[in-house]
Amino acid sequence: MGQCGITSSKTVLVFLNLIFWAAAGILCYVGAYVFITYDDYDHFFEDVYTLIPAVVIIAVGTLLFIIGLIGCCATIRESRCGLATFVIILLLVFITEVVVVVLGYIYRAKVEDEVDRSIQKVYNGYNGTNPDAASRAIDYVQRQLRCCGIHNYSDWENTVWFKQTKNNSVPLSCCKAALSNCTGSLTRPMDLYSEGCEALVVKKLQEIMMYVIWAALAFAAIQLLGMLCACIVLCRRSRDPAYELLITGGTYA
C-alpha cells in the first residue's frame, strides 16, 4: 500500500514537471500580453510600476522551465540532492507568486485613481494628427473600446482641439463602426458612441491585472502539489533503504 502511494507520488511529480514546462510558456505569454496591452494604454496610466507583476511573471515563467527540467531529472534519477533542490526552488517561486498576487491586487486598486488623474491631460493634448502619440492613443482606445470622450462625447467640447477646429465635431474615432458616412458632427449624436472611455479603460486595465493574478494563483496551486509530492518521495527515500527506483539504473545520490 505504501509502495503504491509512493509510486503514485513519483508519477504525479513527473507529470507535474511536464505541466511546469507548459506553465512556463503560458506565464511568459501572460506577461508579454500585459506589456503589449500596457503599451496601448500607457498614456492613461503613467505608473510604470504597474508592470512589476508582469516582469515577475515572465521571470517566474523562465524559471519554471528550468524547474521542470530539474524536477524531471531528479524524479527519474530519484536523487535526494536533486529533489531537495527542486523543493527549495519551488518554495521560492511559490513565495514569489504570492508576492505577484499581492502586487496585482495593490495595482489593480490604484488603476481608477491613476486613470482619473491622467485622462483629462491626455484628452487636452489631443491634436488630431496621426504622428502624435497621445492622439493615436485616444483614437485607438475610442475605436477599440467603442467609446467617446471621458464620460461621454460632450467632453470633447472642453478640449483645446475642439475649440481650435471650430467645426462642432468630435474625432472620427467616435463614430460607430457600422456607419460609413459619419463625420463626427455633434448635430448627429446618434452616430457617435455614447459611452465614455474612462470607465472602460479602468475596466480593461483591471482585467489585465486579474489575468496576472489568476495565472499566478493557478500555478501556485500546482507548485504546492509538486512540493507535496517531492516531499513524500524524499521522506520515503530517506526512511526506506529498500526504496524502489522509478526506472532501472536510477541512482541513490
TrEMBL record:
- Would the keyword Ligase turn up in this protein's UniProt record? no
The UniProt entry, under Pfam families, shows: Tetraspanin (PF00335)
Per the annotation, which location comes first and is thus the protein's main one?
Answer: membrane
Q: Name one GO cellular component term.
A: plasma membrane
Q: Which InterPro entries match?
A: Tetraspanin/Peripherin (IPR018499), Tetraspanin_animals (IPR000301), Tetraspanin_CS (IPR018503), Tetraspanin_EC2_sf (IPR008952)
By sequence similarity, the record places it as follows: Belongs to the tetraspanin (TM4SF) family.
Q: What is this protein called?
A: Tetraspanin
Which organism encodes this protein?
Apteryx owenii
